Amino acid sequence: MQFHVREIITGVTVTPGVTLISLRDLPTGSTVPGQLFSLLAEDGIHVDMISLSARGVSGLRTLRFSAADEDLPVLLASIGKLRTLGELLPEVDTGNCRITLSGEKMKFCCGTAAFVFGVFADFGIDLKLITTSETRISCLVDGSRYSAALEVLERGFGIKAV
Hints:
Elements: H1 5-8, E1 11-27, H2 32-42, E2 47-54, E3 60-68, H3 72-80, E4 91-102, H4 112-122, E5 129-132, E6 136-142, H5 146-157
C-alpha cells in the first residue's frame, strides 16, 4: 500500500494533563452513563474520549472516559452522587496525554489506524485508550511518555504537534 501520511493526517493536537476514569462491572442496560454525563455537563465538566465495552458474555460493561486532571474533584463528586444506583468504584489514572490526529481524507483511506498504532508500537508507547471517528484518531498515553510521543509525531509521522 502506498501510504502518504502527510496527505491523510493534516492536524495533530497534544493535550497534557488528562485523567482517565474507568467504571467497571456496570450491568447491561445500566443508566449510569447517561446519568453521570448529565451530572458532569451540569457541573461544566468537558468529557472527551468515551468508551463503553462489554466484558465477555457476563453482561457486564466497562465505561471509560477522559477529562482534564484539574476536574478530578468534581468528577469524583459527580460519581459519588450516583450511589443510589449501586456502588461505583472509579479507577482513576491521572497525568496522561491525549494525542489526536485528524484529517478529512481518513474516511477514504483504509489502514490509517493500523499505521498510527504501528508507529506508536515501534516507539514503545503503550496506548491506554483509543477512540476514533471517520476523521479523527485519539490516543491516550502515559504522561511520562509525553516527550517520546512528541518524537513519534515528528519522526514517525513527519508532523509537529500544535
